[in-house]
Design brief:
heterodimer; A: 359 residues; alpha+beta; 6-stranded mixed sheet; 8 helices; 23% helix; B: 281 residues; mainly alpha; 13 helices
Chain lengths: 359, 281
């Protein structure tokens, strides 16, 4: 394993930033730490980088126990959220920094350093900027410099702390793919911290979802969507809407929301159902109101419906002239993931399979 | 109402004119006029007379002493000020706020009191007086006392100009340097210090100007021994009290000139670095 974190605890005053975190990352793997702000993902990254200490637990990188080893001896490349480029140095000097601070015996010659820096700037596709200063660069260019600087020390592990937050939406999408390709070419392990689930799902081999200082689930993106371990994961990944319900005798009731009851194998009690847009159908009828109708991709039409207190993304079924904005409709659920008390969960299905509603 | 467009945040032109005029008038009356008076008075009987007063033996001794005190004080405060600013901006430790308050103490305490404190500690009747006398070490009424008093009074200048800039720059660059393998010393020398160099120079110049001009604290610990423990400001006072106006104003003009040169150097530096004063940009 390139990274093995075992039961790491870290407290700030009374608050536990990391509360027993364990994580393994294989060589060449791309793992995303996903969670809301305050969930401990940045703290975990800083613990791996050696910028933050641990109260308990063990951190191993590249087979070596790194617990208590200072940042400068870890050989971990870090791209900081705001890049943290050295503002008084040119791009060239920024990238060369990691080589220049080595002990004299290990320091490459001036010519060798220059060659390596130019190679890296070529790799991140900004060879023409080597004489510029950080404040003369755009956000995307700064990020490339930060990446080249982190790669200059030939790290076994690359840590990215929300590196795309400062980029505008169009650039971000392209840069994400480019960084993932770069990761595949270099073959080093990468850990990305993000609060953007789309980013995590698109880039990572595995996504570790964090909640209040714990990793609640670490799985491939598809597994997170298909089998969320907890209600938190179900709510945080994908586009699922959370609907409160009550289970009585194996049936989930959504009163007072105008949604049909569903059968579900859970004990009686209050529960929460998560429904995805493609499992929510809006058809002609009564009970709910169409708030928005728009053409989606692949020939489907999507709608936003207001069913009582709940606002849901839905598929129009059938499509047609009946669907007008502000008009009445009837909502049916093809399936839902229901979480009961004490972490129990089950798949909920319609009571009656109706013609035309079959999945 | 005037028909001409005026930005919403702007005051009436007449009001602006009054404000600006008042500011200029005050600056002229309180800053420019006295400074000009010093030079006019110094040159009243011609340049040769003024120069004679300066090359007189006691005056030369005072000039030399002032330069020596500044030459010792400024490097001490450079190191101490940078260390204090670095500690406050880049580290967390208990008592940090107390340290920040302490750094400003010399600004809030009268220099005379500072001088008296040093007499109380190092003077013949003071706490360490007996111990020092037994070893034949003279602090009060000698160069060490003058340096101590000046260091105390001018300590905040470097620390207070560098600290806000360091705080604003945060610790991210230092952390980045650490992950790239830099030692603490390399990080300080290659990242922290270059980032504040212009503010540091401006702080050093201010510290120097004040070190040369300090009167109150130095006056208490000096003992006013002519040719030995008289700095320029003290010498000016003595000459003035003895009705040697030509000499007093000549030395005063030289002292003022040193201050002006320092200020000019500071603003040139600021122009070069493209930062406004205070270094908090």
């Amino acid at each position: 394993m390139t990274v093995s974190v075992e039961n790491v605890h870290r407290r700030f005053g009374a608050a536990a930033a990391l509360d027993g975190v364990s994580l393994e990352v294989a060589p060449g793997e791309f793992v995303a730490l996903l969670g809301p702000s305050g969930s401990g993902k940045t703290t975990l990254l800083r613990v791996l980088a050696g910028l933050e200490g641990t109260d308990a637990g063990r951190v191993g990188i590249g087979g070596r126990d790194m617990t208590g080893v200072p940042a400068r001896e870890r050989g971990v490349g870090v791209v900081f959220q705001h890049y943290a480029l050295f503002r008084h140095m040119t791009v060239f000097d920024n990238v060369a920094f990691g080589l220049g601070v080595r002990p004299r015996a290990e320091r490459p010659t001036r010519a060798e350093t220059a060659r390596r820096v130019r190679e890296l700037l070529e790799l991140v596709r900004i060879p023409e900027l080597e004489r510029r200063y950080p404040d003369q660069l755009s956000g995307g260019q700064r990020q490339r410099v930060a990446l080249a600087r982190a790669l200059a020390i030939q790290p076994r592990l690359l840590l990215l702390d929300e590196p795309f937050g400062a980029l505008d939406a169009l650039v971000r999408k392209e840069v994400r793919r480019w960084v993932r390709r770069l990761h595949d070419e270099l073959g080093i392990a990468t850990i990305l911290v993000t609060h953007d689930q789309e980013e995590a799902m698109e880039m990572a081999d595995r996504v570790a979802v964090m909640e209040r200082g714990r990793i609640v689930q670490c799985d491939a993106p598809s597994a997170l969507l298909d089998a969320p371990a907890t209600a938190f994961v179900a709510g945080f990944v994908g586009e699922a809407a959370r609907i409160p319900c009550a289970v009585r005798h194996g049936v989930a009731h959504f009163d007072p929301l105008p949604l049909p009851p569903m059968r579900v194998a859970l004990p009686d009690g209050p529960a929460q159902a998560f429904v995805r847009p493609h499992e929510t159908l809006a058809g002609p009828g009564e009970g709910a109101v169409l708030r928005l109708v728009r053409a989606g991709t692949a020939g489907e039409a999507r709608a936003v419906v207001e069913a009582g207190e709940a606002t849901l993304d839905a598929l129009l079924h059938p499509q047609g002239a009946w669907a007008v904005r502000g008009g009445a409709c009837r909502v049916q659920l093809r399936a839902a993931q229901v979480f009961g008390a004490a972490g129990a969960q089950a798949r909920a299905l319609p009571l009656v399979e109706r013609a035309g509603v079959r999945a | 109402m005037s028909a001409r467009f005026r930005p919403a945040h702007a005051d009436a032109p007449a009001f602006n004119a009054v404000l600006i005029g008042a500011a200029l008038a005050v600056a002229f009356m309180l800053l420019v006029l006295p400074l000009a008076a010093v030079f006019v008075e110094a040159l009243r009987r011609g340049l040769p007379v003024a120069l004679d007063a300066i090359v007189e033996e006691d005056s030369l001794a005072a000039i030399r002493l002032t330069l020596v005190v500044a030459a010792i004080t400024v490097p001490l405060n450079l190191v101490g000020g940078v260390a204090a600013a670095w500690a406050v901006a880049k580290c967390d430790f208990p008592g940090k706020r107390l340290l920040v308050t302490l750094i400003e103490l010399p600004f809030s305490v009268s220099p005379v009191i500072a001088g008296l404190v040093f007499v109380l500690i190092f003077g013949a009747q003071g706490w360490l007086g007996g111990w020092l006398q037994a070893r034949d070490i003279q602090v009060i009424f000698a160069l060490p006392g003058l340096v101590l008093a000046t260091v105390f009074v001018t300590f905040p200048f470097v620390a207070r100009t560098v600290m806000p800039l360091m705080q604003e720059q945060g610790r991210e660059e230092e952390e980045a340097a650490a992950t790239l393998g830099a030692t603490g010393f390399q990080t300080f020398w290659r990242v922290t210090l270059p980032n504040v160099k212009w503010a540091l120079l401006s702080g050093v110049l201010l510290c120097n100007a004040r070190a040369m001009g300090e009167f109150g604290a130095v006056s208490v610990v000096s003992g006013h021994i002519r040719g030995e423990t008289n700095t320029m400001p003290l010498h000016v006072e003595i000459l003035y009290n003895e009705y040697q106006f030509a000499g007093a104003f000549a030395v005063a003009a030289l002292l003022a000139l040193l201050g002006l040169v320092t200020l000019a150097a500071k603003s040139i530096l600021e122009r070069l670095s493209g930062r406004p004063s205070g270094g908090a940009a």
